[in-house]
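User: We ran a pulldown and think these components assemble together. Before we commit to crystallization trials, I'd like a predicted model of the whole complex to look at. Sequences follow.
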Amino acid sequence: MGKPAMSVNLRTPLSALLLLLSATVLASPRSAIVVDIGSRGPAQAEEIRRIVVAEVRAETQAADRLAAGYVDSLREAGVAPDGVPFSAPRVVLLRRNGRLLTGSSGMALSRGGGSDLVLQFRPDGHQNAFPTSYRQLLESVFDTARPHMNALFGMPFTGGPVRVDNMDASIGDRDAVAGGIFLPDDGTGMAAIWFPVYTAPETTAVNFIHTLYLAYMGGALFQFDAWSEGFARAATMTTVRNPNALPARMDMEFIGQVVEATYDTSAHYDWYNQPPLANDRFIAPNLKDLPLPPGGSLGGIYLMRYMMAGTAWAKVTTEWPGFLSTFLQQYYADPSIGGNVPALVALAQSTINTLNGGPGATVEGLPFAEWYRRQYVLNTTVSRGKKVFVQAIPITFGLGGNDFGVFAIWVTYFATAAGGNEVLLSGTCFPIYWDSTFARLFTTGQDDRMDIAAAFGSVTPNLPDVFNVGSGPTQWYRATIDLPVLDQIARAILPAGAIATAQSPTPKNFYGSVIGFDGAKVGGDPNVTGKVRLTVLPGANSVDAPLRNGAFGVQTNLLGSAPVRVRVDVIPVFNNVEQAPVHTEFMSVWGDRLGLVLHIGEFATYSPPSGLVAGIQAVGFPVRPFEMSTAALLGLPSNQTLVARWKQERFDYERWPSLEPFDVGEGFYVRMPSAAPGFQVSGRRLGKEGFLPVTVALQPGWNQVVNPFPNDVLFSDLTVQRGADFPTTWSAAISSGWLGTDVFQFTPGSPDPHSGVPEGGTLSPASVFPAGRAVFVRVLVSEGLSITFRPGVLGPAQDRGRRWRPAPTWTGSLIIDNYRNERSAVEVGQAMNHRRGVDLGVDSEMPPIWGGATQAFIASSVPLYRDIQAPSEGSWDILVTGLRPGHVYRATFRLSLGSNRDILLLTLDDVDGRRSYRMRDGWSITFRARDVTHRLRLRNGGRR
Amino acid sequence: MRALLLLVLCLTLLWGCGGGGGTGGTVRADGRVLSVSTGGAPNPPATAQIGSASAPTQSDSGVFILNVAPGATTLVVLHPVFPTFTFTFPPITTDTTLGDFWIGPETVTIVGTVIHSQTSEPIPDALVLFAGKRATTNQDGEFTLTGVAYDSQNDFVFQGILGTVQKSGFLTTQFTANQNPVGGVITLPAILLAPVSDPNPPGPPYNLWGVVTVQGEPPTGTIVTLLDSGTPIRRYNVGSDGRYFLWAVPGAYVLRFEKAGFQTVDVTVTGFDSPDDVIRNDVTLVPN
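Assistant: Here's a predicted model for the assembly, 1232 residues in total across the polymer chains.
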């Protein structure tokens, strides 16, 4: 006992060993609670204990209370049985004289060295002694589990004694959060586990094993929770699901419920794999530091992060059962890489190659690095800004009446601030429900609005049975729920009617949605059907789920209590003949349910046609980048990254690094120090032309938006949603005063004489939503709007063929340029039923004045870019600004609608130059700027 | 479990219903009371009181539903632990959903100013709503919200509450109160309201800016040059508004202001450490 093990990993090079011996401490894992004990030494153990207890209680109270709300919600939704707490054992590191205590002396020689943990309990009568029977239970749990743990996780990083203390009186609310505390050094030079007394032996076993796994990693815990907590949770769920790894007479059904409710999200991992999970730690510093009184919200998404991380690593261990032990033994040889994700990822690939017996090993069909970057919960990037996370839980019990697709929809709305703190936001979300044809569904009134307080809001819609007529198979369908909150949005894509309905209440356990092929469609070609085939690997046992209206569901016994690797194929069937699969995915799953979203062509690389140019530009991408660090995405040092996005609520730009990462639909200004012609972005496409439109949330005022598709989208291919109103056309939204008349796109100006790259430019109206170019859209209604880009998906019938603004008799542009790349324009015209001054339905805002850029506007009651007047009028005063005195400029008139016969006698007065010219389509005049501004007047009067 | 869910659904249904007439000469007023300490329903429940009608808040949702006399304008929320909170609203004449009302262990006062986004002129008579409290701006655009629920131990819920400012002819805007209270008072930065008729899209992003004043002349034509170790890296041609805007990576720079006939001014840029720092330097040019 207590004697350091002498075994050394023989593969450890001497230099690495010396490095280990000389290393003082490892950096602490992000969520470890660090307690400063000043200079108190081992002789003051009791005083240290009091300090630690006080600190730990304060630091865990908030998180525990927040967890209580979450667990209550799980119980309410029928997901968690009564009496199930959330397991969250914690690590506490002591800091003495400014130095972290990470383990006993001599630990370096025992690293991964084959020595077991040896539990030491206090003698009876000691204040931290357990009742005898409970101590025996703990001993029994470890004795039974140890061989399994050693095989799964490898030998502990630091073998030897671990003191196990009864801290029942000091550890927080066990109704909410269960778990012990692991201290690599409790201040006496000894590792310790502090553990409470649970009533249920099953709760004891789960939490003790989880805490022991943290002790296995000991002083080599990774710096990121995604790894250290993820490993411990994956190992715990594996161990406790194995009845041979637990003492006899454990209620394995109860343990199974505990694991499914609070550890394993593999049933809906695909649904929950969303960007807000990414972080370097799972509990934000501000959420663990603050005590909370009873009651409360779900506290952000930290519990979901814990579960998703454990599930992600369990996927790896399902495919490579020796992964954890092999990886850790190699990692223990050099734990200094514990904060180096690329090195850890490389080691993981090396590990599965070793297990594979050769290179090219994969996880879920992908090289490790590619698999890793698709798992948001494993992304350790700390990205700032507002985030919306959506959790959908199928309701499969107590269905009646017309219940068809009942889901609990929970939204978590928060913002990551400086230091990784998370602000729990309040707000209002107006959920939008769509069927598989992207017609808007209306459920019941209470589902149209979601009030979010302290980050949490929920609705429980019953997605209606909209396609079934008479007899025949149930026409389930792919339903899409958009959840916009101000300028952020989350989306759930769910199989309505394909899990359990009032008419067919027995739940199916393999279900989901397909994007890109709908299978049998109501109103579609009757000779076209489809199926989704689940095949358990490595054998060929399979089951087919009928694919109807983009959704599928089937009950199968292929999914059960053991972890399985499966292959999922989307198979079209034409005239009853199976075709080759159009989509295949591999995945590992544990448990008896599997819900998926199968998106054909989801992963893509987008290359802007010209890459990124040098200087300022307004861009956005039709893929959600895997890379969540904006600086890394652009290939720039963080402190040299200039990216900004307009935030109307601040009436200012948000600038990197305070800015959220790039995402589909969101436009940004970027200034590149030099051109990046080969720039490309890899990530996920959120929509699919012809199948899945994309909705973008807009807040009142100006919004920087980008087309979410890789090709231009016409205004006629959009719908606009306001609250619970029916979707309307772009033109109708403008006519109704919901939207500003024009969408402005940015064109960089001439190079700055000193920097040599454009530092300014002009905004001019866009005739389409251009691909890859950010535009400004103005919303005029107080609650905001959402716009849905739906190329290839039919909108409301009345949308088609309608012009998006009243047709003027004629319109034309006066274009000012310097014969090179400085350019600006205004648009004028005449039409019936228009008036002088600002006619909001037709006249248009003025692009802003940019430093160093030429800009023209029509001087009216307000400066205008476009002014359409009644035919009886016809005079426009135009002010050109941003000119270089002494330089020659050209003014060209071009008709964009109508012909020369439609206009009257058009005259351009050079007011400052005191000359007048007759103008026709394509005609130009020149003028020399005497100042930075120049006045022109365009007149149309008297017939030719 | 299902029963619980149905109960929540029923309550939510009641919460979501609006319109219609009252009962026996009363109208229905509903709303939600939330604790600023937790973001959830107060626990123990509070009592919502409008006139002579009162009811406890639902323990799981904080919702209250009252049948009140038409014309009521005041809600009083009583809580066994928190102080009593009083909220006002326009006279209720029909069934009305009043919104969210926040209570907590402490109170703060929030002061601020609402100004025009283009002219920076104060905007009077704007309605400011925050945490169930409301105020109207005075002639100087100033408002004061008193008795706003607060919890100094748990301010991360408070900081997430979204306030709104409304004024006819202007776009509604939101704000949060992220500042720390000083002496029980939170002073907000100026809230800008953009008129619906304001036609301008936002100007370019910048992180160095300021206003140039030229004695005796308009500022038009002033040249602003950004120098990095003496080397010019940017140029800005100032217009009639006198403002300049530059977007640059952090550094130790000098801003040079030049106009023919006036003394050149050099200003050292300080505190520019991160791309999201926004540095303002105003200068006045005097004749040679």
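The mean pLDDT of chain B is 89. That may be worth checking against your pulldown data before setting up trials.

User: Thanks, that helps.
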